[in-house]
SDR family oxidoreductase
Amino acid sequence: MIVVTGATGKLGRFVVEGLLKKVPADQVAVAVRDPDKAKAWAARGVRVHRVDYSQPASLDGVFSKGDVVLLISANEVGKRFPQHSVVTAAAKKAGVKLLAYTSILRADTTGIALAGEHKATEQAIRDSGVPFVFLRNGWYLENHTEQLAPALEYGVVQGSAKDGQVAAASREDFADAAVAVLTGTGHENRVYELAGDTAFTLPEYAAEVSRQSGKKVAYVDLPVPEYAAALVKVGLPKPFADILADADAGLARGELNDTSHTLSRLIGRPTTKLADAVGAALKAR
């Protein structure tokens, strides 16, 4: 059985759909907080488990000996490590064959604050003794393209990235890598640094939005504290705004760039181009 946690999230949905193209539905299970969101999969034969990380007992019986499990990192920044630890303990207890985890690019060496919980989770998984694979996902193109509305409204993309390059890829690209690992062989105890084939700067991103939208959009670089304050003004909680601004500072240092092309080799095709991502986002508006 292949079990995907956090399956109804933005990344998880791509993973499950990718799995269903490769294996029978009765070989796929999902662990989700709200089973109603997985009704369509259940109707296709996918096994659905209700799981709440704050209730460790909810994981009883979810994993079985020999399962392949994908732990998609939780979305509650600051609470993720204890949540991940619950899943890791359950996977160890069940005797799963492989525990894959979606981490962050160069989790063990990057200075980006967002990596802290990922690094701790990786160590906990190593310490558990469960065979693992770390899918160290780089930046999602959607981190930028999902913010098109304010960029087009105000003609500005703000950040603290200077001219740093980011090798971003789409969620579907990263999901396809997870599917390749979950359905493949020889991935035990491997670490994959995953990123897009072609890096770009935020000024280049703003220029691409301008080119395709026909509206002038400029990149405005701000000091990290000012960018964090701007994010708070648009409604983000201050701790999360600080983390995002810190990530931009890491982008400026080149910590979200990668030239290994590991992702495209793993999925067997080029990663999504910036121009195509911008075009799709504009079309979807």
In short: The first strand starts at residue 2 and ends at 5.
